[in-house]
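can u do me a favor
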């Protein structure tokens, strides 16, 4: 049986299939495989569920909270979702174990959905073609601020209408602890779109010969600095009062605006080329765009990070493992698969304000990241991957998604990196010092 085979399942009690010693041995094999990761909670939870199964006992959510996760007796399951998050992830890890180990096992250990107990399933392989969910890219790539504002207004209107009719996913995601740092107070939110500032280069006749994008020219003042530093070519540069954004920004905007609106906050919108330090100090910042368009947020983003920009903006370098995350989504040949990366980060920008970063190296990474952080299960996966016992961790962490696609279609993605940020380094960064 291969991981693509889809089994028919008959759910049984583990006691009907395994003896107590066999169940204990299976538990230890799963732990020893390393599939549960470094967190002590997963192995402790699996051993606890095995023990309950041997005692023919059905544990409750509060039992797992106090006996496994070490929560206090006043633990409120209606407020704290940590047990549900860990059970959800353990369910996935058990499935992953059997995709790589004991492929011919007659019975598999599972946690049925909606349950906090172990069960066994008898498996019979039925081979079916692999299926994929995908999102097609198809939005104009020349979005100016006026278009963005109109789109945002329409999204706000549509999301409010949808929210009246049913509990939209954005409503649920807006209540997640990850978003509480920007939605849980009265501070206004400034939605910053990562645009590329464009200026003109003139020919000998004084006409615009070509439009130019320079990574160090991100605003009118930057262009003026360039002109002063290159007096010989000053007259060759012309401010076109023009900027553009990647097409993936429209999709990301459609995911994030309803979520922010459901948080009940005041939301304004601006372009990165117009963002000021005063804006950062007086607003929570939610950034949407390419990593290469971070501009004023770049130093803060990577000050306390375990990542840094690689040989280009299409590459991130993991400083701990020396691993490169490199996108090849820039110019894929027709029909060729490509790999892209998305980045999510959240960190304090000042005493009162927070930055939430939703970015990608290219469109596929940006679009998937926006989709992930507006989905409750994906947000739960982020929280678990951090593996921290402190709520403060949710205010300063980063994550990277690896995204696979073909012909500009996004087929699959994995969370490949998560890390707590060093908030002290963020405050010590040059950008942060300028905000004081």
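np, heres the sequence
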């Amino acid at each position: 049986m291969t991981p693509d085979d889809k089994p028919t399942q008959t759910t049984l009690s583990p006691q009907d299939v395994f003896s107590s010693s066999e169940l204990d041995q299976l538990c230890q094999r799963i732990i020893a495989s390393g599939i549960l990761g470094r967190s002590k909670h997963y192995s402790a939870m699996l051993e606890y569920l095995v023990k309950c199964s041997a005692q023919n006992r059905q544990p409750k959510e509060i039992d797992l909270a106090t006996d496994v996760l070490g929560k206090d007796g006043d633990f409120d399951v209606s407020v704290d979702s940590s047990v549900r998050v860990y059970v959800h992830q353990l369910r996935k890890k058990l499935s992953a174990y059997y995709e790589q180990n004991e492929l011919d096992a007659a019975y598999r250990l599972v946690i049925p959905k909606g349950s906090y107990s172990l069960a066994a399933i008898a498996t019979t392989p039925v081979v079916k073609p692999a299926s994929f969910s995908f999102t097609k890219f198809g939005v104009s790539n020349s979005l100016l601020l006026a278009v963005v504002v109109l789109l945002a207004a329409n999204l706000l209107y549509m999301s409010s209408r949808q929210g009246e009719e049913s509990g939209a996913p954005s409503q649920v995601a807006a209540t997640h602890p990850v978003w509480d740092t920007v939605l849980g107070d009265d501070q206004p939110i400034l939605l910053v779109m990562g645009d590329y500032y464009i200026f003109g280069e003139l020919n000998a006749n004084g006409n615009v010969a070509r439009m130019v994008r320079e990574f160090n020219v991100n605003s009118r003042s930057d262009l003026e600095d360039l002109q002063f530093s290159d007096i010989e070519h000053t007259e060759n540069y012309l401010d076109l009062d023009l900027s553009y954004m990647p097409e993936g920004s429209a999709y990301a905007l459609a995911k994030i605006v309803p979520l922010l609106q459901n948080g009940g906050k005041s939301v304004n919108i601006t372009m990165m080329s117009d963002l000021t330090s005063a804006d950062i100090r007086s607003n929570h910042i939610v950034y949407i765009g390419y990593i290469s368009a971070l501009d004023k947020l770049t130093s803060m983003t990577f000050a306390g990070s375990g990542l840094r920009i690689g040989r280009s903006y299409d590459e991130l370098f993991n400083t701990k493992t020396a691993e490169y995350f490199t996108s090849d989504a820039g110019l894929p040949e027709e029909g060729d698969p490509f790999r892209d990366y998305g980045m999510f980060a959240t960190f304090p920008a000042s005493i009162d304000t927070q930055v939430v970063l939703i970015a990608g190296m290219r469109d596929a990474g940006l679009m998937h990241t926006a989709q992930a952080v507006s989905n409750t299960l994906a947000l739960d996966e982020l929280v678990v991957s951090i593996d921290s016992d402190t709520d403060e961790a949710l205010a300063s962490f980063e994550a990277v998604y690896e995204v696979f696609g073909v012909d500009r279609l996004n087929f699959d993605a994995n969370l490949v990196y998560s890390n707590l940020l060093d908030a002290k380094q963020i405050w010590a960064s040059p950008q942060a010092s300028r905000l004081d």
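The longest strand covers residues 337-348. hope that helps!!
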